[in-house]
Design goal:
This protein is mainly beta. The protein has 1 helix and 9 strands, in the order βββββββββα. The protein has a single domain, classed as Sandwich (Jelly Rolls). It is globular and about 40 Å long.
Length: 124
């Protein structure tokens, strides 16, 4: 566990492929000494989407740059820039960019866990 504030530079985080036209970065997680949460980003190119996935933990997605759609089996949610969505554990979903601009979202997992699978994604 880290006992001091920890600054992570976005440009220093490894890039990983998270579906066609999607890149994710793990910024803060257990490898950095955090015990209770994971934070990272996903960049989605125009017209692309993440892979469909289900988390075993709670997830929050914040639309940092641009408009993103969170799509589940039963509904879709439009997140304007600055909006966020809570996705309970066990909900199958994906995130989609329907715009002509590259978008960026921030994700938070609590408790930790999915980052272990994300580390298995191919490096770019």
């Amino acid at each position: 566990m880290t006992e001091q504030p920890l600054l992570i530079k976005n440009q220093e985080a490894p890039l990983r492929q998270f579906g066609k036209g999607c890149i994710c970065k793990l910024l803060l997680d257990d490898e950095k000494g955090l015990k209770n949460l994971t934070i990272g980003t996903v960049i989605i190119e125009p017209g692309e989407r993440t892979i469909t996935h289900t988390r075993v933990v709670e997830e929050v997605v914040f639309a940092h740059k641009g408009e993103v759609y969170a799509v589940t089996e039963n509904a879709e949610y439009r997140l304007a820039e600055g909006d966020c969505i809570f996705i309970p554990a066990g909900i199958e979903h994906y995130h989609e960019n329907r715009s002509n601009e590259t978008i960026e979202q921030i994700f938070i997992f609590s408790p930790q866990g999915p980052e272990k699978d994300m580390r298995k994604l191919p490096l770019i």
